[in-house]
């Protein structure tokens, strides 16, 4: 199965990288953009056929490695 | 409008970061995972009400700053 995990900063956590991108965009003339937050995306194949088993395995992967759950949220998408 | 841009490496472009994550996951006991590719996600607000105008503006932003189109693809999602 194909899986995608999107890791984003929690609300209230400062995102200096996002602020830098926003400043650069404004400098390039894209002034209508605000509140940029940068996150990470992981695409991978996961073995097995049971979506719920895969989901719980991916949740464990997020908790242990892919996301820092103190400051980050994660969302899981699985497609066959 | 809320917009999300997902930037991923093109097929065939080496992803050492993804390989490192795959190795770490295997070390943690998550052996069923393969072909990990890491990408970036940008969430932001964009001014205006016309989705097509916003989309063309975001495409220009991607071409100029958010993605390196030599080695990266980008996908745009816009929601009101």
UniProtKB/TrEMBL annotation, chains A, B:
What Pfam families has UniProt attached to this entry?
A: PurS (PF02700)
Name where it's found: Cytoplasm
Q: Which reaction does it catalyse?
A: N(2)-formyl-N(1)-(5-phospho-beta-D-ribosyl)glycinamide + L-glutamine + ATP + H2O = 2-formamido-N(1)-(5-O-phospho-beta-D-ribosyl)acetamidine + L-glutamate + ADP + phosphate + H(+)
Q: Which UniProt keywords apply?
A: ATP-binding, Cytoplasm, Ligase, Nucleotide-binding, Purine biosynthesis
User: InterPro entries given for it?
Assistant: PurS, PurS-like_sf
> Which EC number(s) does the record attach to this protein?
6.3.5.3
Family annotation (SUPFAM superfamilies): PurS-like
Q: Does the keyword RNA-binding apply?
A: no
The pathway where this protein functions is: Purine metabolism; IMP biosynthesis via de novo pathway; 5-amino-1-(5-phospho-D-ribosyl)imidazole from N(2)-formyl-N(1)-(5-phospho-D-ribosyl)glycinamide: step 1/2
Q: One GO MF term, please?
A: phosphoribosylformylglycinamidine synthase activity
Q: Which domain of life is it from?
A: Bacteria
Which top EC class applies here?
ligase
This protein's record includes keyword Nucleotide-binding:
yes
NCBIfam families in the cross-refs: phosphoribosylformylglycinamidine synthase subunit PurS (TIGR00302), PRK05974.1 (NF004630)
Q: Which family does it belong to?
A: Belongs to the PurS family.
As for what it does, the entry says: Part of the phosphoribosylformylglycinamidine synthase complex involved in the purines biosynthetic pathway. Catalyzes the ATP-dependent conversion of formylglycinamide ribonucleotide (FGAR) and glutamine to yield formylglycinamidine ribonucleotide (FGAM) and glutamate. The FGAM synthase complex is composed of three subunits. PurQ produces an ammonia molecule by converting glutamine to glutamate. PurL transfers the ammonia molecule to FGAR to form FGAM in an ATP-dependent manner.
Binding partners and assembly? Part of the FGAM synthase complex composed of 1 PurL, 1 PurQ and 2 PurS subunits.
- The protein here is known as Phosphoribosylformylglycinamidine synthase subunit PurS
Look up and give the organism this protein is from.
Devosia honganensis
Gene responsible for this protein: purS
């Amino acid at each position: 199965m194909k899986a995608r995990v999107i890791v984003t900063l929690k609300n209230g956590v400062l995102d200096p990288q996002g602020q830098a991108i926003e400043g650069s965009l404004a400098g390039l003339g894209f002034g209508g953009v605000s509140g940029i937050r940068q996150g990470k995306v992981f695409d991978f194949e996961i073995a097995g056929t049971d979506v719920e088993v895969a989901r719980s395995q991916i949740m464990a992967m997020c908790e242990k490695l892919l996301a820092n759950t103190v400051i980050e949220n994660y969302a899981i998408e699985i497609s066959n």
